[in-house]
């Protein structure tokens, strides 16, 4: 990719950071459930999850559209390219930067360090794609995870608001599990297999493969937490009496 397109990419990422900053201010003005207002530690978490929910809806649908619009890209993961996919990577990079700054500036780093690690991995990987122009299709496939995150984030918002309808949480619980398999575990497993089998283990290929393997471990850890919390609560350990109001984790 030419230097001009790289400069444009930086500008697009900066614009995305500004968009999510505006969404954060909008979230501050929205009414909050009484269960959130009564617990000061939950206010930041609620606002942060609202912004995360907005990104998941936009990025998840965008990733689906990019693949639907250009399905031929799936046959060329290393070198396939689409303008829509490139814009999506810039958009999500801006979100990860904004969310990292939100965590750090609001002194939530200790309770949300896993998210900072995840965001650092995503940002570094996406920057490498913008510089080289390679493996863009892999990034779009990974961003399908945002479809799953729509229901994962909704799950936590429902828990925090103490929604009076258990049926709504129960329905979302099972939909969330299906989406977790379809849009998080399946794309991740396919890309891990593809990189281990076909991608050269040197340079950018080695860097992205290492990122994928670390992300595999994180996803499986989150999946085990989700199963224990929503389907096997008797297996949970050490959570009684634990105050997690300030944590960003979506699984607890």
From TrEMBL:
GO terms for cellular component: plasma membrane. It is a multi-pass membrane protein. Its main location: membrane. Keywords: Membrane, Transmembrane, Transmembrane helix. SMART domains: TLC. It holds the Pfam family TRAM_LAG1_CLN8. Residues 41-235 form the TLC domain. The chain crosses the membrane at residues 6-27, 48-68, 137-157, 177-196, 208-227. It is found in: Membrane. GO terms for biological process: membrane assembly; phospholipid homeostasis; plasma membrane organization; regulation of membrane lipid distribution. PROSITE patterns: TLC (PS50922). PANTHER family: CT120 PROTEIN (PTHR13439), TLC DOMAIN-CONTAINING PROTEIN 1 (PTHR13439:SF5). This is TLCD1 protein. It comes from Oriolus oriolus.
């Amino acid at each position: 990719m030419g230097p001009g397109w790289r400069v444009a990419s930086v500008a697009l990422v900066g614009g995305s950071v500004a968009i999510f900053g505006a969404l954060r201010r909008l979230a501050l003005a929205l009414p909050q459930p009484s269960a959130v207002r009564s617990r000061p530690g939950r206010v930041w978490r609620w606002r942060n999850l609202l912004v995360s929910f907005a990104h998941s809806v936009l990025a998840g649908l965008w990733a689906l559209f990019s693949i639907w619009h250009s399905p031929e890209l799936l046959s060329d993961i290393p070198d396939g390219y689409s303008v829509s996919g490139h814009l999506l990577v810039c958009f999500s990079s801006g979100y990860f930067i904004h969310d990292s700054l939100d965590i750090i500036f609001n002194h939530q780093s200790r309770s949300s360090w896993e998210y900072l690690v995840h965001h650092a991995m995503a940002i570094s990987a996406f920057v490498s794609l913008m510089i080289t122009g390679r493996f863009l299709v892999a990034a779009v496939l990974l961003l399908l995870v945002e479809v799953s995150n729509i229901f994962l984030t909704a799950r936590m918002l429902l828990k925090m608001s103490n929604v009076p309808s258990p049926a709504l949480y129960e329905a979302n619980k099972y939909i969330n599990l299906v989406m977790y398999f379809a849009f998080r575990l399946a794309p991740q497993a396919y890309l891990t297999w593809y990189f281990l089998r076909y991608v050269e283990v040197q340079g950018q290929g080695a860097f992205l493969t290492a990122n994928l393997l670390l992300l595999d471990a994180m996803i499986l850890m989150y999946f085990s937490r989700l199963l224990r919390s929503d389907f096997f609560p008797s297996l949970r350990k050490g959570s009684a009496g634990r105050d997690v109001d300030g944590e960003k984790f979506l699984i607890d």
